[in-house]
Amino acid sequence: MTDNKSPYQKRENSAAAEVVWHKQLVSPARRAEIKNQKAACIWITGLSGSGKSTIANLLEHKLNADGYHTMLLDGDNVRHGLCKDLKMSDDDRTENIRRVAEVAKLMTDAGLIVITAFISPFRDDRKIARELFESGRFVEVFVNTPLEVCKERDPKGLYKKAIAGEIKDFTGISSPYEKPDNPEITLDCASKPAKETTEILYKLLKCTHIAL
Ligand SMILES: Nc1ncnc2c1ncn2[C@@H]1O[C@H](COP(=O)(O)OS(=O)(=O)O)[C@@H](OP(=O)(O)O)[C@H]1O
Ligand SMILES: Nc1ncnc2c1ncn2[C@@H]1O[C@H](COP(=O)(O)OP(=O)(O)O)[C@@H](O)[C@H]1O
């Protein structure tokens, strides 16, 4: 019963004073232990079209093949359910990332290795997400693909629409993307193939963050 202190308790503006934290007999570490793994949140950030979903999928596929219990949260999918009330204003993006980080935290408390793929354009929002996790349990992955390359790829035709003014608040065009200052890893997804960058990320995770 060592791991009962919650990061929730450390945060400002958390629950009302009347809401008390209930200690639990089974710790997050124990939940991961019976799965024979270490829980972690692999937070993938980058521009639209940078390769977040591609890398996240390849990574989950590899970890799953190794027998890890994983979960993938992807921006496009989450915005169909949990966050379908949110749009793309700065405030809505902040709320989107807050919810996703809380869900990822719950899932890591359940012992899972969670991979998230969200643009998550604001440094402060990513910092708040990181602060939910114990040291070493949050791995920020910057998918570093230049805007010009993303525009050229334009897999969903969104840049074309954004440039034509048909989509407002579009990241990189009419809404900012703040690059991570100090991510655990930066992936060069412009000149290296997705399989290669995924392998680099996979090796880092296996050697450090999820190594038993
Ligand atoms: N205005 C605007 N700007 C950026 N992206 C847009 C926009 N409108 C819709 N989309 C689509 O929404 C996906 C991004 O959702 P996220 O939840 O990852 O965004 S954020 O983290 O809240 O900024 C994003 O997915 P990816 O291309 O996979 O990044 C787009 O498909
Ligand atoms: N090296 C690479 N890494 C990742 N994606 C790449 C790479 N080269 C080309 N692509 C293509 O770029 C597009 C990236 O789209 P996606 O993974 O959905 O990005 P995001 O989730 O960041 O919007 C895909 O069509 C993918 O096949």
Report on the structure:
This protein is α/β, with parallel strands linked by helices and 212 residues long. It has a single domain, classed as P-loop containing nucleotide triphosphate hydrolases (Rossmann fold), CATH 3.40.50.300. Helix content is 38%, strand content 12%. It has helices spanning 28-33, 52-65, 75-78, 90-109, 123-131, 147-153, 158-163, 194-207, and strands at 40-45, 70-74, 113-117, 138-143, 185-187. It is globular and about 55 Å long. Mean pLDDT is 94; it is low at 1-5. The chain binds 3'-phosphate-adenosine-5'-phosphate sulfate and adenosine-5'-diphosphate (ADP). 3'-phosphate-adenosine-5'-phosphate sulfate binds next to helix 2, helix 3 and helix 4.
Chart the SSEs and their pairings:
Layout: H1 28-33, E1 40-45, H2 52-65, E2 70-74, H3 75-78, H4 90-109, E3 113-117, H5 123-131, E4 138-143, H6 147-153, H7 158-163, E5 185-187, H8 194-207
Parallel strand pairs: 1-3, 1-4, 2-3, 4-5
